[in-house]
Specification:
alpha+beta; Rossmann fold; four-stranded mixed β-sheet
Length: 645
């Protein structure tokens, strides 16, 4: 399950280049797209009378203290470890100042947008107006065009750059719709050993682990026991966007591939978000759609049962044209997230009601969904294809989840140091920073992923057993690698690298500095961010190949870092279970404790993650940008986490 994306089409949306300054405003450049958009073609100017839902992201208070706040509750050396914040405290701490709100309102009024047209989001973090293209071009000193997607034919309205008056620029993070064009999509990595369920049943026992990594193999490899409780407070959450879960497959999986009896009628708690649904027998799951969800839930049930699972199914996945849908998920968890710090951004998030055929027609869901202690995601996007402002605001959202005691895990990607854009497995790399287009399938610069680049999530890479098909768990692990000599587009390697957006967090500084000093990669700064000051990923790894999965009644061997991610997330759920049994709270943000205890991981020193015409990075002793700290050793992790308050 590749954590990759398709540049999806939405309803008639757009893009911009500079227009003459208007009024008495002293405009300065606020944001500009890097290079020519990949797979998008600029068409005609947008009609001046067309109405745009303009959203202005107000600068938040206290975000300069984000690292201080999150480490205060997650650093094992902090006296406040585990003292997580309430949603109310988070909303109050980061709310925009009155000066910011008043400054932006004054600018809008002087520009002809009277107060009666203003609306604030919950938490007053977004100021919303509906304005014509002509009005918006005047506000942002820009020009809007229609853009057409080269593959889907869908259209958007956007601009190449936009400007703000110097007097209000400090009060605005970014505005939409402006330069945003990109979307996301998971891509299944189904191994060639596809077959009926029955032949797989012979691949049991620890001698066959390299051929099929059953729960029995994972349990022996990482030394964790079965789940013991069904604590409602510890239900693990898995979010799905493009894939719908076909429930009858669960019973077949339980019968063939679990080590303890699981009742055939066991299903996850279903949390429908903006029209999310499960699949039925008539649902068209062509090209592997649905495999992602099947892999995630079957793997997790095999590890944590009888602990419960939650399926957060975000709607509109059937259209495959949602972008920014992590925000739609965040909206549903807590009302304070709606239109809040990256939520509900038009032309990045889907519109509600959805104007697409068969789209969700109800209102945006705000709040009401239960919050899980552990959240697992097998989706990601291309860092270079998204505005920095958007990534920054959403990264702060994940930080706030950690402040509330939630462990957020994302797959690191399946293309090594590259990325994948679409279902054709087109690798996307980058050109040199100042030479467009920035995202380029023929580029040689490494292409990091989002949100794995965010320092407040745990990024999970992939491993496999050393020694080929006859390997056993006693042979140890190496970085996952599956080259395809017949079609390099199908190559599969653990995603990893160094962000060009986010700085190196304190908890990771020692490990990353050691790697760059003792094992410097043989590349210059025009290939990757070798400054030693960049957020690096992945953080940890786990088996990411040949996991048994039942999909539409068929047995598959499925891999990808989106196989690794639910494994690690399930192990964290077991750790929380052990803490709860001792009267303690959930772990929350994992990374500070993990980096403080590298001895709790199986170090991976073999393998690499090639891409972009290079060998990528190489596994080395200690942390590396292929497998992170390594794979989990459950007994050591449990001992460490049970000692913490």
């Amino acid at each position: 399950m590749h954590s990759s994306l398709l540049l999806a089409a939405a309803v008639c949306l757009t893009a911009c280049s500079a227009a003459p300054a208007t009024g008495n405003h002293n405009f300065v450049l606020h944001e500009k797209r890097d290079g020519t958009p990949h797979q998008w073609t600029k068409r005609t100017r947008a009609h001046p009378a067309e109405v745009l839902p303009v959203r202005i992201g107000l600068t938040q208070s206290n975000l300069h203290k984000a690292e201080e706040y999150i480490l205060d509750v997650s650093d094992p050396e902090s006296e406040n470890f585990g003292k997580h914040w309430s949603a109310e405290k988070i909303a109050n701490t980061f709310a925009p100042s009155k000066k910011t709100q008043d400054g932006v309102v004054d600018w809008l009024v002087k520009s002809g947008i009277d107060v009666g047209r203003h609306q604030y989001s919950t938490g007053r973090n977004w100021l919303e107006i509906n304005a014509t293209v002509a009005e918006t071009e005047g506000l942002f000193n820009t020009e809007y065009h229609y853009y057409e997607h080269d593959i889907s034919g869908g259209h958007r309205i956007a601009c190449d750059e936009y400007h703000l008056p110097q007097s209000v620029r400090e009060h605005i993070d970014f505005a939409m719709p402006t330069i945003q064009l990109e979307g996301m999509r998971p891509m299944p990595n189904i191994m060639p050993q596809n077959t009926a369920v029955a032949p797989f049943t012979g691949l049991t026992g620890l001698a066959n682990c390299a051929r099929l990594y059953t729960v029995e193999c994972l349990r022996a490899l990482y030394q964790f026991g079965p789940g013991n409780t069904t604590a409602e407070s510890n239900a693990m959450g898995i979010a799905e966007f493009a894939d719908f879960l076909y429930l009858p497959d669960l019973a077949t999986f339980f019968k063939n591939f679990t080590t303890q009896p699981i009742p055939a009628d066991t299903v996850p708690q279903f949390i429908s978000i903006d029209g999310g649904q499960t699949a039925n027998a008539s649902y068209d799951q062509a090209e592997g759609a649905g495999v992602e969800s099947a892999l995630d839930f079957q793997t997790s049930y095999g590890i944590i049962y009888p602990q419960k699972l939650r399926l957060y199914q975000v709607g509109d996945g059937v259209n495959m044209d949602s972008v920014g849908t992590f925000n739609i998920f965040l909206d549903a968890l807590d009302e304070s997230y709606c239109s809040y710090l990256g939520g509900d951004a038009p032309y990045v998030d889907p519109a509600y009601p959805d104007p697409n055929e068969g789209g969700y027609t109800g209102p945006l869901q705000c709040g009401g969904a239960p919050l899980s202690n552990v959240l697992s995601f097998s989706y990601n996007q291309i860092e270079a294809a998204l505005p920095v402002s958007y990534q920054t605001r959403q990264c702060h959202e994940w930080m706030k989840m950690g402040l509330q005691g939630v462990s957020v895990l994302f797959a690191s990607g399946d293309s090594g140091v590259a990325n994948r854009y679409n279902s054709g497995y087109e690798n996307s790399c980058l050109t040199a920073p100042d030479v467009g287009p920035y995202v380029d399938s023929n580029g040689t610069r490494f292409s990091p992923s989002f949100p794995t680049n965010c320092p407040w999530i745990t990024a999970v890479g992939g491993t496999m057993l050393k020694g080929g098909l006859n390997a056993t768990i006693h042979d140890g692990e190496q970085a996952v690698g599956q080259p395809d000599a017949t079609d390099p587009k199908n190559d599969f390697y653990s995603g990893g690298g160094f962000s060009n957006v986010f700085e190196l967090p304190r908890y990771q500084s020692k490990a990353v500095s050691r790697y760059l000093t003792e094992y410097p990669p043989p590349y210059t700064s025009d290939i990757f961010n070798n400054s030693g000051k960049a957020r690096a990923y992945p953080d940890v790894s786990a088996i990411g190949i040949k996991l048994p999965t039942v999909w539409l009644g068929e047995g598959l061997a499925v891999g990808g870092t989106s196989a690794s991610t639910p494994i690690v997330a399930s192990i964290v759920t077991l750790l929380n279970e052990a803490r709860i049994a001792k009267g303690k709270g959930p772990i929350g943000f994992l990374n500070p404790t993990m980096y403080a205890h590298p001895e709790a991981f199986n170090d991976i020193t073999v393998g690499g993650n090639p891409g972009c015409g290079s060998d990528g990075f190489a596994c080395q002793p200690g942390w590396d940008p292929v497998t992170g700290l390594g794979s989990p050793n459950y007994p050591k992790l449990e001992e460490i986490f049970l000692r913490l308050p």
